[in-house]
């Protein structure tokens, strides 16, 4: 059985006037919601921002990388100082 955090969930969003579907694991959807709340944006607006800056990367991959950066920036580096 797949752990709940790693279950794939598909959501439909409108980005730049176009409908798109994004599949991400539940843990990433939760993180995306957290980042959007912190930034004061809707999830769709945050996804549109990441989409506009992703270059050639797949959108789902670009979202995962941005979320990794978000949590890395919030986590102190072990042994630093």
Poorly predicted tracts of residues: none
How confident is the prediction overall: mean pLDDT? Answer: 90
Count of β-strands: 2
Helical fraction: 40-55%
**Class from secondary-structure proportions:** alpha+beta
Strand content: 15-25%
Number of DSSP helical runs: 3
Strand order of the largest sheet: 1-2
For the sheet with most strands, the description reads: 2 strands, antiparallel
Secondary-structure element order, as H and E? EEHHH
Please give the radius of gyration in angstroms.
Answer: 14 Å
**CA-to-CA gap between the ends?**
42 Å
Overall body shape: globular
In short:
The chain has 81 residues and is of the alpha+beta class. The chain is built from three helices and two strands; from the N terminus they run E-E-H-H-H. Helices cover 49% and strands 20% of the residues.
Summary keywords:
81 residues; alpha+beta; two-stranded antiparallel ribbon; 2 strands
How do the strands and helices of this protein lay out in sequence?
Blueprint: E1 8-15, E2 18-25, H1 26-39, H2 43-52, H3 59-74
Antiparallel strand pairs: 1-2
Helix pairs in contact: 1-3
Give an overview of the whole structure.
A hairpin with a 2-residue loop joins β1 (8-15) and β2 (18-25). 49% of the residues lie in helices and 20% in strands. It has 81 residues and is α+β, with helices and mostly antiparallel strands. The radius of gyration is 14 Å and the shape is globular. A two-stranded antiparallel ribbon has the order 1-2. α1 (26-39) crosses α3.
């Amino acid at each position: 059985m797949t752990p709940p955090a790693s279950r794939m969930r598909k959501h439909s969003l409108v980005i730049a006037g176009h409908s798109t579907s994004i599949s991400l694991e539940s843990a990433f959807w939760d993180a995306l919601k957290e980042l959007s709340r912190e930034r004061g944006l809707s999830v769709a607006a945050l996804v549109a921002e990441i989409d506009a800056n992703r270059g050639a990367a797949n959108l789902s991959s670009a979202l995962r990388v941005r979320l990794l950066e978000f949590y890395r920036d919030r986590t102190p580096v072990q042994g630093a100082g």
